[in-house]
Amino acid sequence: MSRRTSREFALQGLFQIDVVSADVQDAISHVLDQEGAEVDPLFVRDLVSGTVSHQAMIDELLAKYSVGWDLSRMANVDRNVLRMAVYEMLFHAETPSTVVINEAIDLVKGFSTPESGKFVNGILAKIMPEVDTIRAQVGQ
């Protein structure tokens, strides 16, 4: 089971929720029902449901660190990759933030524009030094 592929599937679920207002459980079921996918269904479920559950707090962080960029004006893929990466950085301490950032960059390079990698890296790199402080504030 590939965590990278699991992140791709979680992104697809988050995209459905964000763009077409899909129900969280329906979006998760839809992405997990794809044939031939070797994913960790628990990880996919956690990334999607955790990101959605903490979206208000995550969006506040993104707004704080994405100076000059309104969340609603960001590319849909970029916004959802950022949300998922911030969730993973804060709530999956076992995964180093540098790994989460590299995975996020790879995701946007594959699903968004060539410039998206730099954009996502810039925002997540600003958040990374604050991760321990933020974790303490949210009780992680």
UniProtKB/TrEMBL annotation:
Gene Ontology annotations of biological process type: DNA-templated transcription termination; transcription antitermination
Keywords: RNA-binding, Transcription, Transcription antitermination, Transcription regulation
One family name in Pfam for this protein: NusB
GO molecular function list: RNA binding
InterPro entries documented for this protein: NusB-like_sf, NusB_fam, NusB_RsmB_TIM44
SUPFAM superfamilies named in the record: NusB-like (SSF48013)
GO cellular component, one term: cytosol
Domain NusB/RsmB/TIM44 as annotated: residue spans: 5-128
Keyword Ribosomal protein on entry: no
Domain of life where this protein originates: Bacteria
Role this protein plays: Involved in transcription antitermination. Required for transcription of ribosomal RNA (rRNA) genes. Binds specifically to the boxA antiterminator sequence of the ribosomal RNA (rrn) operons.
Family: Belongs to the NusB family.
Official protein name in the record: Transcription antitermination protein NusB
Species: Tumebacillus permanentifrigoris
Lineage of the organism: Bacteria, Bacillati, Bacillota, Bacilli, Bacillales
